[in-house]
Amino acid sequence: MDELKTKPIWILLLSFLGLLFLFKHTISVLRWLFITLLRPAKNLKKFGSWALITAPTEGIGKSFAFELARKGLNLILVGRNIHKLQNVTRAVQSEYPNIQIKIVVVDFSSSDLTVGIRNIEEEIGGVDVGVLINNVGITYPSAKFFHAVDEEIWMNIIRVNIEATTRVTMAVLPGMLKRKKGAVVNIGSGASIVVPSHPLFAIYAASKAYVDQWSRSIHVEYKDQGIDVQCQVPLYVATKMVSKVASIEKSSLFVPSPDAYVRSAVRRIGHGEPRCTPYWTHSIQWFFAYYFIPEFLLDAWRLSIGLHRMCATERL
């Protein structure tokens, strides 16, 4: 005690603040370890016996179909290619023969989604859709400056990433509200959240920023009515779309396979988190980008990558 009395007050204050800082971040790390490694997954059947998945024929969407079937949920698969939908249906049912599967054909890039949404509403009538996975999403075929993006491309991005996701949720949500339970999962992107900008993919990044803010807002609107809305934020996953824009062909420590990503994603559903980064290495990347790398460096890095990809595409 005598030693403490002899120390200047500012040293004691700094020591106290340092301990608070250390305590806060120790708690954060322990919480992250618990959520990532120890927290049990929710029983998704408590929300309902059916799950609706958009774009379920490849990549993350297909992995969601298998994982939710493994969890015992019947499936409504919504996509534009009937043959691919049928192939996924056969593959899932060969592994999980007791699972019922409905197919709805909708082209989400259509300028008029009225008929497609009506078809979804007809298929979900009379069934308790408890989980909605808004997975559908598209990006540029290659990096481009904003003014050079073809109108058809950017209009399709807006229709698919924003309008379709909004309309499908509008169709499914009333049933959830009536039953006072449900989980809505919207697939966002690190392009709109983890980095401060995403040059040469600006419209895609902006569309995913909509998904993030909209998800967090309706999470607050409906959380007291039994509806859990969540924006899940993947970084790179080894999908066909990522291979086109980022030349990543194989999974790795920081680029999980769709199956590995979705196993983590499903464990995060229903815990009341408006936004999360399900895969553990993605959350580490986000942490370092947010706390340790200045925005101007991230901006320069993303622009450099975009220009490199644009030049590589033009040389083909």
TrEMBL record:
Its main location: endoplasmic reticulum. One of its GO terms (molecular function) is ketoreductase activity. GO terms for cellular component: endoplasmic reticulum. CDD domains: 17beta-HSD1_like_SDR_c. The keyword NADP applies. Gene3D superfamilies: NAD(P)-binding Rossmann-like Domain. It is found in: Endoplasmic reticulum. Keywords: Membrane, NADP, Oxidoreductase, Transmembrane, Transmembrane helix. It holds the Pfam family adh_short. The chain crosses the membrane at residues 12-34. PANTHER family: ENOYL-(ACYL CARRIER) REDUCTASE, RH59310P. Belongs to the short-chain dehydrogenases/reductases (SDR) family. This is Uncharacterized protein. It comes from Papaver somniferum (Opium poppy). The lineage of its organism: Eukaryota, Viridiplantae, Streptophyta, Embryophyta, Tracheophyta.
